[in-house]
Amino acid sequence: MPLCEGCGSSFEDTFNFCPSCGRAKPEPKKINIEVDIKQKHAHDDCPICGDGANTQKVSAIVASGTSEANGSSTTLGNDKIYNSSNSKQLGESYSTGTIHSSSIQQNKLAEYLSKLKPPIKPYSSKWSPGCWSIGILGFLIYLIMYGIADILQVYSVGGVIVIVIIGIVFLFFGTKGVISLVNNANNSKEKDQKAEDNYKSVLSDFHVALPVWDSLYYYHKHDIVFMIGNKDYAPKEDMWKACIRWGKDEVVSS
């Protein structure tokens, strides 16, 4: 209910004048509101233009653009068995076989944005003799020891046993010597050390980049990837290199 500015009496809002003193009803106060409309950027907006309409999480793109197909095929067959002497049928044989297959299909964008697989531990370049190599070397040593036994005219059981033992010793140390010569000539130790160091470096980069990839966003219009809270961005072709760089920057800053 309005209050009269003259006598202070209250009256119905439908009255235009105060019933006590006849003063006109006071005009309602006007309120001026100024509104400053500015676009508020979301956390996943493009770092180039600030638009978030064409932004999508990388892991979601890969999941939606990847499909796995599984299938199997079964073959059945039967054959009749005959007696070779009189050509009479003895019975029938049945065979069955099943082939299982699976394939993963990705669209081009999902293929570009997929996370890399962890590196495979390198195999040793050291040469190790197989059964054939040891067999050939053992045969050569046998011929040599047989020739020595024939020259020395060793025919007793004890002498033969001694010759056999000597041959086994020669075979053992001869095999080790051949292995050492081949691997030294091939620089296997240096190659294995270099491959191991490279594997550890790549594995370290993989573990650093993986959590970054999980938080990446992709902007379709500019064809770039970026990370929340980081103004830097990279083309999708350099995504994994950028993940390694950003991951290392986070490790250093923390």
> How does the overall form come out from the CA principal axes?
elongated
First-residue to last-residue Cα separation: 63 Å
Helix-strand string = EHEEHHHHEEEH
- Main beta sheet: strand number and arrangement? 4 strands, antiparallel
- The number of distinct helices, counting runs of at least 4 residues, comes to 6
Q: From the helix content, strand content and strand pairing, which structural class follows?
A: alpha+beta
Strand content: 15-25%
Q: Using DSSP, what is the number of strands?
A: 6
* Portion in helices: 40-55%
pLDDT under 50 segments (min length 5)?
Answer: 37-41
Radius of gyration: 44 Å
What is the mean predicted local confidence, pLDDT? 78
Which strands sit side by side, in order, in the main sheet? Answer: 1-4-5-6
Topology:
Elements: E1 55-57, H1 58-64, E2 66-82, E3 89-106, H2 108-113, H3 131-152, H4 157-185, H5 188-214, E4 216-219, E5 224-227, E6 233-235, H6 239-253
Antiparallel strand pairs: 1-4, 2-3, 4-5, 5-6
Task: Walk me through this protein's architecture.
The structure is a single chain. With 254 residues, the protein is α+β, with helices and mostly antiparallel strands. Among the domains are: 37 residues, no CATH class; 39 residues, no CATH class; 55 residues, no CATH class. 42% of the residues lie in helices and 19% in strands. The strands form two sheets. Strands 1-4-5-6 form a four-stranded antiparallel sheet. Strands 2-3 form a two-stranded antiparallel sheet. The longest helix has 29 residues.
